[in-house]
Design a protein that fits this description.
The chain is built from six helices and three strands, in the order E-H-H-E-E-H-H-H-H. By secondary structure, the chain is mainly α. The radius of gyration is 18 Å and the shape is globular. 15% of the residues are buried.
């Protein structure tokens, strides 16, 4: 079993070391909190699990989609793995509302992409 340091895992995930320690404590990642070692396979498995959702968010942020200031801030925070309740607190809304906003924006992007495909097919 190959291990990497918490610092390396944090860099791979693009989050702080304290978050990696939290993931170790709550079982999202395998490893040893005391030695600061993370199982490389569990890190890879976790990245595979979260990457599609976060990749979609980053795609929205990079697209020409018109986003409100609040939508953009919510997506940027979520792309940095910030918790929904913390994002909601910053905007005075619930974590359920934050989740709904993210889903709505991603659906809007999907609809936009689908209409672009349809238009391209007509040309």
């Amino acid at each position: 079993m190959e291990n990497i340091t918490v610092a390396q895992a944090a860099q791979e995930l693009g989050i702080g070391q304290h978050s990696v320690f939290a993931y170790l404590r709550n079982g999202k990642l395998d490893g040893d909190v005391k030695t600061g070692q993370v199982n490389a396979k569990s890190l890879h498995d976790y990245q595979v699990k979260i990457t599609p959702h976060h990749a979609e968010i980053l795609q929205v942020l990079d697209s020409d989609t018109d986003l409100t200031e609040r939508e953009r801030d919510i997506l940027e925070r979520r792309a940095r793995f910030e918790k929904l309740d913390k994002i909601g607190a910053a905007h005075g809304i619930t974590k359920s509302r934050v989740s709904a906003i993210i889903k709505r924006v991603l659906a809007r992007l999907a609809a936009h992409a689908e209409s672009q495909k349809s238009l391209a097919g007509l040309l």
